[in-house]
């Protein structure tokens, strides 16, 4: 299924966009906007060739009535990102394929937090993820970017930052065994667009 949007697909809180079982492509137009929401999952979607476009953007009714949406019913320029996350929390993006967009592939900005990007593939772009916003140095100095048991190939690197010995945000009853990154292909062979 190939979807070309005329305006950004604005995702509401507590929603899942799930592409399992079918090949879903969002392409050649505005793509996904996540703004002023929480608890969103995007799984198994192929998002590529997103474009900047000026047009009306749908606002979730709950946000419009409170005047909290960052977009209005006036003309709005869509960013050209595959996924644009603003002022949102508890966002999970996994097993997605993102490629070749006008701006970045994933932008996380304006006080967004608890964003997880997991087992996705990024190609044909120089700005894969961009984290930006208006936080003070005192705030962003506390941020922690880590990578545990991830597999980096073809010269890819990850630079950790922040406090190294932070405690996990889960209790011992939620603990589970983590397997080696080399097993990812076997464990996810039918989970989404990652190649087998």
TrEMBL record:
Record flagged with keyword Lyase: yes
Keyword check for Lyase: yes
GO function term, MF aspect, one: pectate lyase activity
InterPro entries (alphabetical): Pec_lyase (IPR002022), Pectin_lyas_fold (IPR012334), Pectin_lyase_fold/virulence (IPR011050), PEL (IPR045032)
This protein's UniProt keywords: Lyase
Domain Pectate lyase: 1-184
Protein name per Swiss-Prot or TrEMBL: OLC1v1020356C1
Organism, scientific name: Oldenlandia corymbosa var. corymbosa
